[in-house]
Amino acid sequence: MRSQEAKRLIGDLSLAELSREVEALGEPSYRARQIFKWIYQKGLDDWKEATDLPLFLRKQLGAHFDLRPFDLETCYQSRDGTQKFVFRLKDNNFIETVLIPSGERRTLCLSTQVGCKFGCLFCASGLPGFIRHLSPGEITGQILFIRHDLELSLTNFVFMGMGEPLDNFPSLAKAIEIMNSPEGLGIAARRITVSTCGVVPGIKKLKDLGLQVNLSLSLHAPNDELRRRLVPLAKKYSLEEVLSACEEYAEASGRIITLEYVLINGVNNSLKEATQLAKIAHRLRAKINLIPYSPVPGQPFQRPDRQDVEAFKKWLKDMGAKVTVRLSKGLDIQAACGQLAGRFLSTKFN
Ligand code: SAH
Prior knowledge:
The chain has helices at about 15-25, 30-40, 55-65, 135-150, 170-180, 200-210, 225-230, 240-255, 270-285, 305-320, and strands spanning about 10, 65, 70-75, 85-90, 95-100, 105-110, 115, 130-135, 155-160, 190-195, 215-220, 260-265, 285-290, 320-325. With about 350 residues, the chain is of the alpha/beta class.
């Protein structure tokens, strides 16, 4: 007997791809838009409920496509309101998604890979190594879960969870297309931010999408020597290459670049680094986001104290830079920047 064919994830299909599938089943292509509506606007979780589709089509879809990419494994609630969701994928890998409420905003921090290849010295996401890319449906599924299972509205979407989004460009691009499309999740590009540790070809490809998506560069060091020590990818792409790719991105998209800078005590927070960083920000007309280092078990780094963070910020301001400090949220549940590691570290607290 033939073993049962593995089902595909419906969320992995763009609208155009779904139209072709529907046509292959002998149905008019407008059915694809109907199906998209069910999935992305109504949060369909059982094909039976899509009652305006012909029964034949519902049966075919049910036989070939899964609606859900994962199950909720566990959820942690921080004292500051941040929530971290751990999802179990179909292959039993885990990913984490963080929901960060702040005033009127509700930001969702999305993962794009299980693990990460890039091994930035201060980040937990690289600790398990690289396991695999997420598919488009596994990325958008994180949004659907919050919107439909929890019935919460979201205002901002940042690709700052586990993994390097620009290293998984095909899935990222398709997920952004579905997020951005009016038939899909209907999210304005300006509400979406892609963060990268400096994958130069990816920055160029993102530019070629021609969208007004925001770009954050995880800079962390304002010169090649220090950057090569903290961000191994800097051995492949020089600061100059990364900065000029960002400049081109800013020009093409009309968006202001953000420079993310993890402040690590005694490593990258002297006046010398502040001066170099201010120059870079000036050149790119970028804003700087300082992130005091979030502790990761086993790492030798230290978070600077409040006065040191303020001093660094003041130097930058005095040199004319636009600078904010990101108050790390969810530290107590290891949901802060750089603390996401799937279940790899999750068991070490609580
Ligand atoms: N790979 C992408 C997306 C991850 S974003 C990137 O590097 O941009 C996660 C952000 O948190 C990055 O800016 C990352 O450098 C930062 N980060 C990593 N480890 C951190 C830590 N221990 N403390 C504070 N920020 C950290």
